[in-house]
Amino acid sequence: MTIRVLLADDQALLRSAFRVLVDSEADMEVVGEASDGAEAVRLTKERHADVVLMDIRMPGTDGLAATRMISADPDLSDVRVVILTTFEVDDYVVRSLRAGASGFLGKGSEPEELLAAIRIAAGGQALLSPAATTGLISRFLAQQDPDDLGHRDPARGERLASLTGREREVLVQVAGGHSNDEIAERLEVSPLTVKTHVNRAMAKLGARDRAQLVVIAYESGLVRPRVE
Question: Which residues are recorded with the post-translational modification 4-aspartylphosphate (predicted)?
């Protein structure tokens, strides 16, 4: 199966470099290029993209708004958005994860990392850099008023209460940036059992992927951010 990739960045030179890299791989191809968010959303629909490499800062409709639009469209529920950013420690990245992005990657990453990120996102694993993403969310939410956490979406709070004890336990581990294999070892269960709990938690909480589970765990107050 060929992974269909859409490139969204306002810098033509970067798009060209990404195109050469992606098209050099046998299992993926670039199906379109967009210079702003609105064009990215339109081309995602028209070209049936599997993964969108999305820059955050673009003129007009930015990457944040475009990510939210893609995430909210039922017809694009299988599309995964990977945020590309110059600054990995950036509150826009967290907002993008909240809007539905599957993860993020620095523009200074090695070519192999970018290609791996595309494959991981296309495979539904989604959370690209658990430790970095978790740390970023933790630092950002640590700056928020603790009394506000968990009150943005009352319905989500109710759904959180529907999780079983084991599902909540697994969710805490996911928020810690641990893989299914690591969680299985920690909880002394099989990786398949962990995957089942993760999938059930995603379904109950309305999360698209693991990245969303991390955000929900912090925003709900189930996991408290640490201030360094």
Answer: 55
Residues with Cβ within 8 Å of residue 89, at least 6 apart in sequence: 136, 139
Give the C-alpha separation, 205 to 203, whole Å: 6
- The tens digit of pLDDT for each residue in 179-204 reads 788 899 999 999 999 999 999 998 89
Token pair in block for residue 147: 């009394």
pLDDT value at 149 more than 50? no
Helix, coil or strand: residue 213: helix
Tokens 């084991």 identify what position? 166
Integer CA distances (angstroms), 22 to 3, 4, 8, 12, in order: 10, 10, 14, 15
> Furthest-apart CA pair in the chain: how many Å?
50
What is this structure's pTM?
0.72
DSSP state of 118: H
Predicted confidence at residue 176, as pLDDT, reads 78
Q: Is 55 helix (H, G, I), strand (E, B) or coil?
A: strand
